Every structure is written in C-alpha cells, then in structure tokens.
Amino acid sequence: xxxxxxxxxxxxxxxxxxxxxxxxxxxxxxxxxxxxxxxxxxxxxxxxxxxxxxxxxxxxxxxxxxxxxxxxxxxxxxxxxxxxxxxxxxxxxxxxxxxxxxxxxxxxxxxxxxxxxxxxxxxxxxxxxxxxxxxxxxxxxxxxxxxxxxxxxxxxxxxxxxxxxxxxxxxx
Length: 172
Ligand code: FEO
Fold this sequence. Notes:
It is a single chain. Helices cover 76% and strands 0% of the residues. With 172 residues, it is mainly alpha-helical. The protein has one domain (5-164): Ferritin (Up-down Bundle), CATH 1.20.1260. The mean pLDDT is 96. The protein binds MU-OXO-diiron (FEO). Residues 18, 21, 51, 54, 95, 98, 131 line the site of MU-OXO-diiron.
C-alpha cells in the first residue's frame, strides 16, 4: 500500500517530538547529577536513550514504507528545575502530552486507512501506559518520602541500577 503524505508528515513530526523528549530527559539528568542525585540522573539518562529509540523506531518505519524521514527543527529544552518533585511532575505532564500526540497520529493513520501504521503505533500506545505509570510511581514515592533525607538516598541508589533495554527495536 502506498505511504500517504499526511501519515508521513505526522510521523516525521512525532520523530521530532521524541527527540525533543530525549533532550528534555538528558537535560533533567544533567540537573540531577549536578545536584548530587546520581541514581536519579542515571534513570533519566536511560529515559533519554528510550526516547531516542522511540524516535528511531518511527524514523526506520517511515523509511521502510518508502517514505522520506526528515529531521525537523528541535526546539531547545528547559535547563533549570525547581527540584526533584518538580522534575517528576514535569515528566508526568510531558508523558501525558506525548500520549495525546501518539493518539493523534493513530487517528490520522486510521482515517487514511493506513493499518500498517496503526499497527506500528499500537506498540507506542501500550508503551505510553507504562511510561506514564513509571513516572507517576516515582513522583508518588517522592511525595511520600519528601525531597530530602535518607529515604531519598535509598531511592537514588535503587534508580541508579536502571539499565537501558531497547524494547523498541526488538518489538519491530
Ligand atoms: Fe517516547 Fe516517553 O514517550
């Protein structure tokens, strides 16, 4: 089936959004490390890698369909944050926006009767449930234990063990 221009465009826009998300999390990772939270910084660095793998999954899909994958302008990301809780509040908020955007891509593809694309996007719809849940769990833990003290030290240690697994690639 021919790859339609409307779907190609919205997917290229989603690639930019995924790269922007990656930059946001890398920026947060830097802030966290600067503020002595190495484990949280590691968690965010893995998050950065995940977002880049999301971008590449869509990028490769566009090429596989005979489309032209293009990288649009990537806006700059915030570099200053009010604290740990603020970072995870922003993460939750941002993931909600990404979910909306993925749903919008799905809707466009469905209208175009491009079911290869809706099938590919189904992976993202499932992934977003996990992304939102994980960020919210960490935010709730921070709210429970507060932003300072030994409990944060322990959570920092735990998040320091997170490693990147490219599930985006193996799911293709
Ligand atoms: Fe690519 Fe965090 O969604």
